[in-house]
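Section 3.1: Structural characterization of target chains.
Under the original work plan, the team committed to producing a structural model for every single-chain target entering the pipeline before any wet-lab resources were allocated. The record below documents one such target. The sequence was received from the expression subgroup and is listed exactly as submitted; it comprises 229 residues.
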Amino acid sequence: MTEHILFFDIDGTMLSTGGAGQQAMELALVEEFRLTLPFENILTAGRTDRGIENEIFVKYGIPLMDDQRQRFMRAYLDRLPDCLRRLPGGLLPGVRELLEQLSERSDVHLSLLTGNYAEGAWIKLRHFGIDQFFASGGYGDHHAHRDDVAHHALRTVSDELQRAVPGADAVVIGDTPADIRCARAIDARAVAVATGVYTAEELQPHLPDHLFGDLSETAVVIDRLLTRR
């Protein structure tokens, strides 16, 4: 029986897109909605795509209607693959080795907990060649707050494993304070990695259970991930 549920964030935790995600959103807003400098004063790190979408729509007076949301999401997703090809990105240190070793264990279930739209998440994972390690997770299509994504991710895993999965069996691995907070929201352990926009010094005050500069020390990282508090 699976004993350890590991929820991985994507951007800044497993990979860097070189800014492709934000550029694709900017192009969608400029070309489809005729906005200028749409991301001025908009924070994106640790946010869900739905939350970013809501803020931009309110800021620029775009109706919060399903047809407009679909128009924006489609315009973004259509541009994302080309932006990924053009901008310098890659897997972050130790990620492939970590996923390969974890995927071989029968007591580990790998899942996603990301602010990305689901389709955007899979576009990124396929582009960087790590999609095979995951089957599902929680995404940012419908939830503006990452805590809600965490609850959805936990329900998804419970459905997959056909048993109630307590948050105490889970670990959230992420690179922002929002990842640490959403782990607490489901009573999961939080493992922070300083490979995104936040430094270790900025992450430490949020009290993750473990904090790494990166995920390159595979054996040490696995030991921390699988040791309960």
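DSSP finds nine helices and eight strands in the chain.
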